[in-house]
Write a structure and sequence with these properties.
This protein is mostly helical. It has helices at residues 2-7, 10-67, 73-119, 134-204, 219-222. It folds into 2 domains: 2-63; 73-115 and 139-203, no CATH class. Residues 106-136 are annotated as: Disordered.
């Protein structure tokens, strides 16, 4: 073997060694390029995944806002309007109750004064007290019965007004819920159509297998 090496021209030996070194360098550079391309591809995939996740979150937020689930200023404004209307109704009811109480208090004072004046005899009247007659009793009790019926009528009026206000509030709530349901149904149908279009797009695409050239297949023959 040493004899064969001695017979080989040194220039030929140097050329062969330089060829081997160049091939090894090309193989290493190809490996580095493949590694760099792989890293770049993985980074691009990560970026695309993040963008897709962000778009999905944004779509969910838009759906919820459009449906009025949360973060909807119109929904909050409608609730405030309903609450303000309800408070106004309560204020009107309290004012009516206050007027009724004032009226009852004034009537009670007048009735008390009248009874006291009738019960206290004047100095000029020296005749003995007489027994009250039936017409006098009826006349005395008539204001009381009138007050009772007025109170009953006022109570019925308040109940009717309260029922009307409650019906208005429930009607507004039902309209709002119906609007929310319609928005959700439209969004779900839109999303379903988008998913169907995306699935049909993916089923029509023909995937091709890319052949990769093995750049290190013949390295062992030169080593």
């Amino acid at each position: 073997m040493s004899f064969l090496l001695d017979d080989i021209d040194p220039s030929v030996m140097e050329a062969a060694l330089s060829l081997v070194d160049e091939f090894a360098g090309d193989a290493l550079s190809a490996r580095d390029q493949f590694t760099a391309s792989t890293r770049q591809t993985s980074q691009e995939d990560c970026v695309q995944a993040q963008l897709a996740r962000r778009n999905q979150v944004n779509e969910r937020k838009k759906m919820l806002r459009a449906a009025g689930v949360y973060g909807n200023s119109n929904h909050v404004r409608n609730n405030r309007r309903i609450e303000i209307a309800y408070l106004k109704e309560q204020l009107e009811k309290l004012q009516i109750d206050l007027e009724i109480l004032k009226k009852q208090k004034g009537e009670d004072k007048t009735r008390t004064r009248t009874r006291a004046a009738r019960a206290t005899p004047s100095p000029r009247q020296a005749s003995p007290p007489q027994q009250p007659t039936a017409p006098a009793i009826v006349a005395t009790n008539t204001p009381t019965m009138t007050t009772v019926w007025e109170n009953i009528a006022d109570s019925q009026r308040r109940r009717r007004k309260k029922a009307e206000c409650e019906n208005i509030r429930l009607k507004m709530v039902i309209e709002h819920q119906q609007k929310v349901a319609d928005n959700l149904r439209n969004l779900i149908q839109k999303r379903a159509s988008q998913l169907g279009a995306e699935c049909s797009f993916f089923t029509d695409v023909n995937y091709t297998n890319h052949h990769v050239l093995d750049l290190q297949g013949d390295v062992g023959e030169f080593q």
